[in-house]
Amino acid sequence: MSPAAILQARGVTRRFGGLVALDHIDLDIPRGIVQSVIGPNGSGKTTLINALSGASPADAGSIQLDSREISGLKPHRIAQLGLARTFQNIRLFANLNVLENVKVAAGCRSAESLFGIVTGNRNHRRTETAIDEAAREALHTVGLIHRADDAADQLPYAQQRLLEIARAIATKPRILLLDEPAAGMNMTESLALLETISRLKSTGITVLLVEHNVRFVMDISDRVAVLDFGKKIADGSPAEVQSNALVIEAYLGRRRRHA
Hints:
By secondary structure, the protein is of the alpha/beta class. It has a domain of about 80 residues. The protein has 10 helices and 10 strands. The strands form 2 sheets. Strands 6-7-8-3-9-10 form a 6-stranded mixed β-sheet, sandwiched between helices. It has a 4-stranded antiparallel β-sheet with strand order 2-1-4-5, covered by helices on one side. A hairpin with a 2-residue loop joins strand 9 and strand 10. It is globular. The N and C termini lie far apart (about 45 Å).
């Protein structure tokens, strides 16, 4: 594994029946950057995130987080090791308020015993304080601390997206996988999301961004990988990717054929 890489994938393959959704994908994600993955619809972007996070394990290949093999581990174990993610579909606890939603996530890394929880001993009280502080810090980071006591399902759509990110970062990840976080956002909301991702990067969190909005990706990314029909066809700086003939064909050529 490259010394600078926090996450490395080698030969990652995922099949669904006769369909090869990921075809021997190699990817090195340097520490402390925003790495994006783009590609036309059906190119394998979300399948890749699912494989990396353990939500839908790869059929073959190696995935290492800080030189530790995580292929085959359960998603909760991968999260405990420092990889968190969000989903395309918002998955909030509608019956909890904003702060409580984040505290649930922050508590996932707690080693508190059942005895401590039941008796409310000193260790439990310290844990509760730490969870509350971590949750509030996460809400500060995404700009939602002023909505802490509001019902989660009453937030506007864009703020619900930010709440999902707050829940993810409350687990104290080293790398955060965002699956189309800008989907459904208008320009103002997208700009706020760009600022949030920049703040995450400034705190030392590595970000892997899967997004269909190419302009959004080019504005925020340090590196961009491009998938097409389950294969990686490009990987480099935004400028390198935008001038790559295979990438241009994947986007513009397909549009011409459809037209």
